[in-house]
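Researcher: Checking consistency across runs. Here is diguanylate cyclase again:
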Amino acid sequence: YIPKDSPACIASIIPILHRLESNKQHKVLVVDDSATARRYLRSLLERQYLTVIEANNGEQALDMIRQEHDISLVITDYAMPERDGVSLIKELRKTWRSGQLAAIGLSASDENALTAKFLKAGANDFLKKPFNQEEFYCRLHSTLDILDSERRLYRLANQDYLTQSWNRRYFFEHALVRHHQGPRCLALLDIDHFKTINDRFGHHIGDMVLIDLAKRLENFFSDALVARFGGEEFCLLFGNSPQIFERRLAALMEDIAGAELTLMGHTVRYSVSLGMVNDDANIHDLIRRADHCLYQAKSSGRNRIVL
Ligand code: GH3
Ligand code: MG
Ligand code: MG
Ligand code: MG
């Protein structure tokens, strides 16, 4: 017996409070051909602060998953017209890993080995209907806990901590996956005299300049692959329209050079230099040559693009 206000009791509810708090960020898609079943699941999930949307068969569910982008979990019935739950999960696993989009199967069917069928298709878990409410919540929470950890791990492995930009590792993984797609544009960007900014204003303000740069890159190049390569150097990979790419790079440079940042009472200005290449060479060759262009941009006066 643990008294209600004892530290042990309080400690035991902290993980639950934490779970409920992060549930607010999750959207769950309930897939069932029975409106009654959907309504029941919705009420269970909404009590846990989850956002709920509904589909009445596997085919409709796939359309919604492809359109909405922000679904965390799919809870699906087995027997449904058009596409059953196992086939739905098999199909969505072609695009999303279980750490990106979780799936739980539910069924009242007595079909032999249905649990195995769901798990083999890629479900994170399975429950037989009618289920015990507490068991449902336990399985739901453990699935969401694992999803949260996987997403956190993914961010830790692929994002730069300071600027939230993608890191080098993410860049190469994605740049190499998209190889053999013909010519591409690549640019290397480096802040001019960044050491002087650190020396004059302190490292902390240097960090804020990097964050400012990452935000501007995101504003101008949300459709490109942008990564912090290290220090004050970023790499941008763009589709094949060198004219558009160069125009956007020029606009970014102008935006940066025209900005007057007020950082902790200091007025800070900075500029960047860029090296840009465009052809169908492999990614390592593009980078090597862009680096050479960047070197020329630096040695010919900075705050410019060299092609
Ligand atoms: P250039 O115009 O030739 O590029 O000169 P620069 O001073 O920008 O280049 P240099 O390579 O000499 O200096 C880069 C500096 O960037 C040195 C390093 O301390 C600083 N730096 C690297 N990473 C960080 C960071 O995360 N935060 C801060 N504040 N400074 C960093
Ligand atoms: Mg059904
Ligand atoms: Mg520099
Ligand atoms: Mg540098």
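Researcher: Does this match what you'd expect to see?
Model: One thing to look at in this run: The mean pLDDT is 94.
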